[in-house]
Each structure stands twice: as structure tokens, then as C-alpha cells.
């Protein structure tokens, strides 16, 4: 399994899917499809199975992901989960590809200033009202994965509380 990708290799932009598809070669290769608006991310499946994944970015045509391109590195939110076939499930965060189940052992999280972000997240929390990491990230113009990590750090330090189950990434002041 030496072909498993740990990073996304963003090759550029294309207007149409067939054009983008021709650019993909290795696992983790990706192309953003943009015609006016952002349409999708095409990606050669990072587990090496050879399939092409299509991640929708257009909220007008159903369930969509958010693409963040700060520092020229792609972040997608939420995680990408292939229902059929190989079942790949992973996170894309500042160009790093973090596996959610298989291959998780070699995950490498990107660097960011957890302490500084923790201070800003703490200021945005309310008492007795859980707020989602996604909502806090939108308010602060930050990456949701990083707000989630900062929230978890505040919980460990007993400065914040988090929800459970589906609201595990929701936070309130302790
Ligand atoms: Zn696959």
C-alpha cells in the first residue's frame, strides 16, 4: 500500500469534468472545476484504487463541501466519505490528507497556531449555548478543523464544554 496518498496534489483548475479528468494521474491528484462559480473537486482516489472522486462544491445541486484555499493549500469541510466501492474516508486540511479509518496511523496534521486560535475561539463562546465549530470558524474566518482542535484543547483545559454525538464539535463556555 505504498501508493496511499498523504497529501493532495492540486494540479490547477479546469472548466469541464473531462478536461479535469485527463489531468489526474497519481493517487491524491486533484483539479478544481470552475465555470463562473466553483463546481467541484475531482480527485484520483487517494487509496490507490484508481477511481475518480467528485466532491461537489455547489450548494445549488445538493450536499456540498466548502473549499478553502488560504496559503494556496486546499482544505475541504466536512470530511470526504466514499459510500460505495473502496469506502475511502478522509479529511483534507491545508493540503494534508488525513485518513479517518484505514491508514490513520501515518496521519500528519498541518501546523497552525493552536494557542492563538484558542484565545480567539474562547472569546467567541457563549454560556449555556453550544456553537458549532463550523459557525465559529465562519465568524472568525478560520478553518473549521482548526477551530475544532482549538475547542477540544479548551475542553481539556476546562475552559469550555462540548456536546456529544453529532454535537461533539459544538462548544460553549465552561
Ligand atoms: Zn479508492
How does the SSE layout of this entry go?
Elements (H helix, E strand, L loop, with lengths): L8 E6 L2 H7 L5 E7 L1 E8 L7 E5 L9 E3 L6 E7 L7 E5 L2 E4 L14 H11 L6 E2 H8 L3 H13 L3 E3 L7 E4 L1
Parallel strand pairs: 1-2
Antiparallel strand pairs: 2-3, 3-4, 5-6, 6-7, 7-8, 9-11, 10-11
Helix pairs in contact: 2-4, 3-4
This protein binds zinc ion.
Notes on the protein architecture:
There is one protein chain. The protein has 174 residues and is of the alpha+beta class. The chain folds into two domains: 9-106; 114-173, Winged helix-like DNA-binding domain superfamily/Winged helix DNA-binding domain (Arc Repressor Mutant, subunit A, Orthogonal Bundle), CATH 1.10.10. Helices cover 22% and strands 31% of the residues. It has four helices and eleven strands. The chain has helices at 17-23, 114-124, 133-140, 144-156, and strands at residues 9-14, 29-35, 37-44, 52-56, 66-68, 75-81, 89-93, 96-99, 131-132, 160-162, 170-173. The strands form three sheets. A four-stranded mixed β-sheet has the order 1-2-3-4, covered by helices on one side. A four-stranded antiparallel β-sheet has the order 5-6-7-8, with no helix packed on it. A three-stranded antiparallel β-sheet has the order 9-11-10. A hairpin with a 7-residue loop joins strand 10 and strand 11 (170-173). It is elongated. Bound molecules: zinc ion (ZN). The site of zinc ion has 6 residues, from loops.
Amino acid at each position: 500500500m505504498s501508493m496511499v496518498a498523504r497529501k493532495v496534489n492540486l494540479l490547477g483548475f479546469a472548466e469541464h469534468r473531462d478536461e479535469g479528468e485527463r489531468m489526474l494521474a497519481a493517487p491524491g491528484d486533484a483539479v478544481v472545476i470552475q465555470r463562473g462559480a466553483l463546481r467541484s473537486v475531482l480527485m484520483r482516489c487517494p487509496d490507490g484504487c484508481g477511481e475518480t472522486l467528485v466532491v461537489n462544491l455547489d450548494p445549488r445541486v445538493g450536499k456540498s463541501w466548502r473549499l478553502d484555499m488560504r496559503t494556496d493549500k486546499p482544505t475541504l469541510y466536512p470530511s470526504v466519505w466514499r459510500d460505495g466501492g473502496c469506502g475511502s474516508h478522509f479529511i483534507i486540511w491545508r493540503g494534508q490528507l488525513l485518513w479517518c479509518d484505514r491508514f490513520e496511523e501515518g496521519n500528519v496534521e498541518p501546523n497552525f497556531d493552536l494557542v492563538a486560535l484558542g484565545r480567539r475561539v474562547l472569546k467567541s463562546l457563549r454560556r449555556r449555548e453550544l456553537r458549532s465549530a463550523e459557525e465559529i470558524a465562519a465568524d472568525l474566518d478560520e478553518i473549521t478543523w482548526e477551530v475544532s482542535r482549538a475547542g477540544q484543547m479548551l475542553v481539556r483545559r476546562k475552559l469550555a464544554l462540548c456536546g456529544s454525538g453529532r454535537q461533539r464539535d459544538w462548544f460553549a463556555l465552561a
